Every structure is written in C-alpha cells, then in structure tokens.
C-alpha cells in the first residue's frame, strides 16, 4: 500500500506522528527495521522494514513468529515514512490508530535477493539483527487474501545468542516455590532497589515446555491454566522454547486497579461453561515480573536486574499478558502515587538479589492498605433479617496456636453469605479451635480451621484485634497453617 495512503489517513495537526516524505534510500545500507508495540483498539506489533525510501509495514496481531508459533498473520498496511522508525508516542483518541506506540525492538536486516522483486512476488526472507530478535523470518503473501501475509520463523537457533549463555545449564524444573517478600514498615528510597506495583490477586508460576504445553501453578501448587482460558496463547508471546516465569493473576476494576474481590468471581470455578461466562464479565490478566528458566538455562542465580532484562528480551506483552512495570530508586514517590491510585501497595526488590525459593528480605512489600489472610475458626449466629450467619471469627497462627484476631461482619453479598455458610457448616465442631476462645456477643459456632479468608482492616488494636475488618474473599492458594500475623513473620523467620 502506498505512502499517499499514510498521509491521507492522518491529520498531522492532531497526531504526533511524523508527516514525512518519500526519501532516497539512506546510506550506508538503508536496511533498518523497527518493531513497534501498538496499543490500539487491538494490541498488535508493527514490523517495518526500510526499503526503497519508505518503511514497508505489516501489523502483526499476535506479534512476531515465535518458536511455538512459527507462523503468524501479518497484515500489510500503508508504507510509512522513514522518520517513523523513531516514533514513540500517544496517537489521540478519535484519530487513525489511536493508542500508544512504543518501540519494542530495532536494528538492521539483511536480504539475499532484490527487495523490490521479492516484494513483487510476495515472498521475502530477511535476517533480522535487533537488540532482542536475531533470526531469519520469511514474509509470504497469501494469494487471494488481499493484504494478508504470513510471517514465518525459519531459524530459532539465532534468537538471542548472548542471552542463551546466561545462567547455568539445567533441565526445566518441575516445580518452583515462589519467592516471598517480607513486610517493610514504611516506604523508602534506594538506588539498590526496583519498585513495582503490588498486585492484589493470586501468585502464579508458569511452565512452558518444549512441546508447547503450559502449566500455571498457584502458590500451593494447584493447576490454574484450565481456569483462565485467556492465557491459552501464552506460548505465542515468548521468543523461547522452554520458559518458567513468575507473576500474578488479577482482575482489574474500571480504574485499572487489581482487586482481589473481583478475582473471587474467577477463583474456584471448574466447569468450562461457567468459566466462559465469568470470563466475559471478569477478564483476568497475568502480569509477569520474573523469569527463572529459559531454554536449558537456570536463571535463578542471576541478579534480578539481569533477569528483568532477559524477560524483556523474550516477552511480547499482549492483551491478557502484561509485563509488570518497575521504576528505580524513588520508592517513596512511587508509594505515594500507588496510594493515590488506591493500590494495595508496592514491592521493593533488591536489584542484585538472586531468586530464592523462600521468603527473603531481598523482596519487601510496603502496604498502603492493611490486608492479609486469616483462618476462619467459627461464625456467629445472624441477627435481624440476615440469613446464614452474622460474622466470621478469624485468627492467625503463632507456632501451633491459633490466636483469635476478631470478628468480620461486613463485606458479604447474599451470595457469599450462602456460599461461605455452605462451606463452614460441614466443618462444625464442638470445641473452639482458638487457643483462647473469644466470647462474642452472639452465640458462636466453631469450625475446623480449614478455610482462609482475605480481610482488609484499618489497624491492629492494642489488644491485638482487627479494627474495622472487611471480608474480601476466600483464598484457596494458601494453607491455613501458613497464616501468621504479617508483622511477626520476619521475627519468626529470624
Ligand atoms: Mn499499528
């Protein structure tokens, strides 16, 4: 498609994109390429090759071809001006291609035939040498399909050659225990730390095997992939054959903030039909923040900053698969912004720290909202017109003793009241599970300590009880025995 088309579709008084002009091919080679991530109506990646004084352009809805998906659609779009090779910015709402454009990779390419003739016959093989991509691809026009082409990956062994040498040779691990953070009392600035959003969802480590099979495991090693069909395209977005990555599955509210309460609508579902229905209303997203294994190399011993670099090299973020963004150093300002947005808090991670399969001071969480998990040890009888139960009686472990932490009487919908009651009733026992049984105002029923609730609250009282606790949801990814008071965790761990 012609360059005139490029100019016809845009209002250069409004869009920040360059008007440009057809230029003579630029010495020495005139063989630059760029891949731009474009968050338009549909997220896609635009591949552009400098050729004949313009950028020949293809929009790739699922990104570049990858080892697991060696053939992807590439829709040819209008020629772009050479100046576009440096373009990054926000195309305003209402304009053609509205949305954010960011350079994902750039470099030079080689072609071993006459470019014009190759374009004409609808098949060109190029060797891309970029910062991330280093491989041979073929673009093939699908005859009779208008502007539709395919991008094919020919050679994978050339992908990211230097990165392949990082880490140590190892087989892909069958199971990883996710690294955990300690609670930090207050936000801080530190040049030795990266700061990230603390997501309010469930932790998940994913394993993409060489045969393309994908496993997504929760903290207590339960398979989650069937629950989130959104992530079925996972393997399409990695320039790698075998990977293990760590991240968090969330559901976002209208402000784009992850909310554990919303994820409740997706947790625990098992039937394909109910999952498909729930997915419509509550689409899940998976934010990836670490990479532990890549194509025969164990990366857990590398410093975090290098693991982040490698992750960015092999990952093409897409609609449901995000990259958890981070900033360096300025933790206090970042925390302030997070609190302003109503986020749960931020994470501070040591740049030089390895990935440890346990709780470590290398990772710290700084909370803007007080929220943690508690064990349900009983419930009170309802008052007034309320059905099922009045409040949950919750606690935490200190050693083998379950300490009472308070009663949680708000945060329930009619549906959760019913569901919780259905889960609690069969667990009923005569004896209180707490080391010191509370004496609530309403008659209490005690249950075996099997259920874990996520609860937010304003503070701990001097008596060690929760002030203004609100029920957020049940957790099926944490065992009751793991539930301790967060402030005590560091001390207990020594
Ligand atoms: Mn585009």
A few lines on this structure:
The chain is mainly beta. The protein has 8 helices and 29 strands.
How many domains? The number is 3
* CATH class label of the largest domain: Alpha Beta
> Which percent band covers the strand fraction?
35-45%
- Bound small molecules, which ones? manganese (II) ion
Total strands: the figure is: 29
Our measurement of the CA-to-CA distance between the termini, rounded to an integer number of angstroms, reads 66 Å
In terms of quaternary structure, the protein is: single chain
User: Based on the structure given, which CATH architecture of the largest domain is correct?
Assistant: 2-Layer Sandwich
- CATH homologous superfamily of the largest domain? DNA ligase/mRNA capping enzyme
The computed structural class is mainly beta
Uncertain spans: none
Spatial arrangement of strands, main beta sheet:
1-2-3-4-9-8-7-6
- Our Rg estimate from Cα atoms comes to 26 Å
Instruction: Tally the helices.
Output: 8
Q: Would you kindly provide a written description of the structure presented here, covering whatever features stand out?
A:
- With 494 residues, the chain is mainly beta.
- The protein has 3 domains: 157 residues, no CATH class; 199 residues, D-amino Acid Aminotransferase, Chain A, domain 1 (2-Layer Sandwich), CATH 3.30.470; 123 residues, OB fold (Dihydrolipoamide Acetyltransferase, E2P) (Beta Barrel), CATH 2.40.50.140.
- Helix content is 14%, strand content 40%.
- The strands form 5 sheets. Strands 1-2-3-4-9-8-7-6 form an 8-stranded antiparallel beta barrel.
- The longest helix is centred in the middle third of the chain and has 11 residues.
- The model has no long low-confidence stretch (mean pLDDT 92).
- It binds manganese (II) ion (MN).
- Manganese (II) ion binds next to strand 2.
């Amino acid at each position: 498609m012609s360059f005139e088309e490029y100019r016809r579709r845009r209002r250069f008084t409004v869009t920040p994109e360059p008007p440009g002009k057809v230029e003579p091919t630029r010495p020495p080679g005139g063989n630059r390429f760029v891949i731009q991530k474009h968050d338009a109506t549909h997220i896609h990646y635009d591949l552009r090759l400098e050729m004949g004084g313009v950028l020949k352009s293809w929009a790739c809805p699922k990104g570049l071809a990858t080892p697991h998906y060696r053939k992807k659609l590439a829709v040819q779009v209008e020629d772009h001006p050479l100046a576009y090779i440096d373009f990054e910015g926000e195309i305003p709402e209402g304009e053609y291609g509205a949305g954010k454009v960011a350079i994902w990779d750039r470099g030079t390419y080689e072609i071993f035939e006459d470019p014009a003739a190759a374009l004409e016959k609808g098949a060109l093989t190029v060797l891309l040498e970029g910062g991330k991509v280093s491989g041979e691809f073929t673009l093939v026009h699908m005859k009779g399909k208008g502007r539709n082409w395919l991008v094919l990956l020919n050679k994978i062994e050339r992908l990211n050659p230097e990165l392949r040498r990082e880490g140590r040779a190892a087989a892909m691990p069958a199971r990883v225990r996710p690294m955990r953070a300690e609670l930090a009392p207050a936000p801080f600035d530190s040049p030795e730390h990266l700061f990230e959003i603390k997501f309010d969802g469930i932790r998940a480590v994913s394993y993409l095997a060489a045969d393309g099979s994908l496993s997504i495991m929760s903290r207590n090693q339960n398979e989650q992939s069937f629950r989130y069909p959104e992530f079925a395209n996972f393997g399409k977005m990695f320039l790698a054959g075998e990977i293990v990555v760590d991240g968090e599955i969330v559901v976002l509210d209208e402000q784009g903030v992850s909310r554990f309460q919303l994820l409740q609508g997706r947790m625990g579902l098992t039937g394909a039909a109910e999952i498909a229905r729930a997915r419509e209303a509550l689409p899940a997203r998976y934010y990836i923040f670490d990479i532990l294994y890549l194509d025969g190399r164990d990366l857990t011993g590398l410093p975090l900053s290098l693991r982040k670099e490698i992750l960015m090299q092999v990952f093409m973020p897409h609609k449901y698969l995000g990259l958890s963004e981070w900033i360096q150093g300025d933790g206090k300002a970042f925390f302030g912004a997070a609190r302003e947005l109503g986020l749960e808090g931020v994470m501070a991670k040591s740049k030089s720290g390895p990935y440890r399969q346990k709780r470590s001071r290398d990772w710290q969480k700084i909370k803007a909202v007080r929220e943690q998990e508690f064990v349900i040890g009983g419930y009170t009888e309802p008052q007034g017109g309320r059905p099922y139960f009045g409040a949950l009686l919750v606690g935490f472990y200190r050693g083998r003793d379950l300490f009472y932490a308070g009663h949680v009487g708000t945060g329930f919908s009619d549906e959760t009241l019913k569901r919780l009651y259905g889960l609690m009733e069969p667990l009923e026992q005569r004896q209180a599970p707490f080391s010191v049984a509370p004496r609530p105002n309403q008659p209490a029923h005690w249950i075996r300590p099997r259920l874990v609730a996520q609860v937010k609250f304003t503070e701990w009282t001097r008596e060690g009880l929760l002030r203004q606790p609100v029920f957020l949801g049940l957790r099926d990814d944490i065992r009751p025995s793991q539930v301790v008071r967060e402030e005590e965790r560091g001390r207990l761990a020594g």
